[in-house]
Amino acid sequence: MRRLAVAAAVTAGALALTGCGADSHDTEGALSVSSAYMPQPVSDSMAAGFLTIANTSGKAAELTSVTSDIGEVTVHETVGQAMHEAQEVAVPAHGRLVFRSGGSHLMFEKLKRKPKQGETVSVELHFAAADPVTVDMPVKSATYTPKTGH
């Protein structure tokens, strides 16, 4: 009888640990990026970037930072009529986070070089509980307006 109790306790503990592991990374593999682009910058030192992040998991994901070898990248949110830098941005469970012209966007500063139309800029999106996602952003014309509306 004692062996049965010990076996049950070990099994229960293993199940509890398995459940914890699944909860802590249930956004793993559930994040994807589409519609990424950068309008050709008109400035030598600054540029903007736009994209859509989709989250198919049942848990919100937190975008914590963005990096690129072309310069410093920050996330800017537009709330009402004001734009401000965001430290973390939520990608809702079973939802999307859309960075669009006139709204939230990636801000590239201190550019090491000015990207030209036809080139590609690589960025890496960093999340609190998921692996980074690398995105290649094509550089479009400065007046480019995507059919997706962002």
Tell me the number of strands: 10
Give the DSSP E fraction (strand runs of 2 or more residues).
over 45%
What is the averaged pLDDT score?
A: 83
Uncertain spans: 1-26
* Count of DSSP H/I helices: 1
Cα radius of gyration in angstroms = 20 Å
Would you list the SSEs in sequence order as H and E? HEEEEEEEEEE
CA-based shape: globular
The proportion of residues forming helix, as a percent range, comes to 10-25%
Describe the structure.
- A hairpin with a 5-residue loop joins strand 9 and strand 10.
- The protein starts with a helix and ends in a 10-residue tail after the last strand.
- Helix content is 15%, strand content 45%.
- The protein has 150 residues and is of the alpha+beta class.
- It contains 1 helix and 10 strands.
Topology:
Elements: H1 2-24, E1 31-39, E2 46-55, E3 61-67, E4 72-79, E5 82-86, E6 89-91, E7 95-99, E8 105-109, E9 120-127, E10 133-140
Parallel strand pairs: 1-10
Antiparallel strand pairs: 1-2, 2-7, 2-8, 3-6, 3-9, 4-5, 4-8, 9-10
Provide a brief overview of the structure.
This protein has 150 residues and is α+β, with helices and mostly antiparallel strands. It has one helix and ten strands, in the order H-E-E-E-E-E-E-E-E-E-E.
What are the defining features of this structure?
single chain; 150 residues; ten-stranded mixed β-sheet; 1 helix; 15% helix
